[in-house]
């Protein structure tokens, strides 16, 4: 009876592998459009629920750091904010009051998910959605933003140095860039080997994400006048490959 059970399980696994997993993997490999279409579902319905129960405290800390840096602001004047890599809008809950928010993402397939989620946050004044890569944000004017926000974003940029240059360009003088990113393990640790081993998979299934990125290095060399970096470690075993997190606040 037990043998029969395992034979049935194996047959079902093979059917799943041959009819679902393999065709999806081949299509992801061959088509960039399918990768972009697939990622919002993989992120919002699988990765995000797993990650967010652990990461929400770091997200909160990120916005606390931002709000502390804005102490003394004139609340009657709206804050011009740009969030790059908005995804499904995981940060909307945390924005300071009286914000004019512009959102930018290179993946148009996130937009319906973001629009649906945005209905829950009517206090935010949405200015516009821009579908463009952050390496070349031609639709955002120079010196136009008080704050720029990114979370879980730099790991999947094609060129993070170019993105940081663009962020500095669009920030007003003294404007703030705040981010939360997962970070690489230190050199010569098992965790770093695990991250390197997983990176071809995350590239394919998480739309270009490289778990070994070192966001602090990129931000520090970008040319901000001041950079504050804080490291956080998430302890739950389910997110071991990205347990190291960085929260950073940079001033133009
Ligand atoms: C992992 S999701 C994070 C979404 C959201 N910020 C969060 O914290 O849940 C990364 C987002 O960044 C976007 N993205 C990645 N590289 C980008 C680029 N070069 N320009 C614009 N958006 C980019 C992706 O399309 C995706 O929406």
TrEMBL record:
Q: Which domain of life is it from?
A: Eukaryota
- Protein's GO biological process: methylation
Q: Which CDD domains match?
A: AdoMet_MTases (cd02440)
Q: Which residues form the Methyltransferase type domain?
A: 82-179
Keywords associated with the record: Membrane, Methyltransferase, Transferase, Transmembrane, Transmembrane helix
Q: A single GO molecular function, which one? A: S-adenosylmethionine-dependent methyltransferase activity
Show the stretches that span the lipid bilayer. Answer: 33-51
Protein's recorded name: Methyltransferase-like protein 7A
The encoding gene is METTL7A
């Amino acid at each position: 009876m037990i043998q029969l059970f395992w034979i049935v399980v194996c047959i079902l696994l093979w059917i799943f592998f041959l009819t679902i997993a393999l065709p999806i993997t081949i299509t992801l490999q061959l088509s960039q459009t399918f990768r972009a279409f697939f990622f919002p579902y993989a992120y919002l319905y699988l990765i995000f629920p797993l990650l967010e129960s652990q990461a929400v405290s770091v997200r909160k800390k990120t916005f606390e750091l931002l709000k502390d840096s804005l102490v003394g602001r004139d609340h009657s004047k709206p804050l011009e904010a740009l969030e790059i890599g908005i995804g499904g809008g995981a940060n909307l809950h945390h924005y300071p009051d009286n914000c004019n928010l512009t959102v930018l993402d290179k993946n148009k397939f996130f937009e319906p998910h973001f629009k649906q989620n945005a209905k829950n946050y009517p206090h935010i004044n949405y200015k516009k959605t821009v579908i463009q890569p952050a390496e070349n944000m031609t639709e955002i004017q120079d010196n136009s933003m008080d704050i720029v926000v990114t979370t879980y974003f730099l790991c999947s940029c094609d060129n993070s140095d170019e993105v940081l240059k663009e962020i500095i360009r669009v920030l007003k003088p003294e404007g703030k860039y705040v981010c939360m990113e997962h970070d690489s393990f230190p050199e010569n640790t098992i965790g770093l080997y695990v991250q390197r081993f997983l990176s071809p998979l995350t590239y394919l299934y998480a739309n270009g994400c490289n778990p070994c990125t070192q966001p602090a290095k990129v931000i520090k060399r970008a040319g901000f006048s001041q950079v504050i970096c804080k490291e956080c470690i998430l302890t739950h075993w389910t997110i071991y490959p990205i347990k190291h997190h960085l929260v950073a606040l940079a001033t133009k």
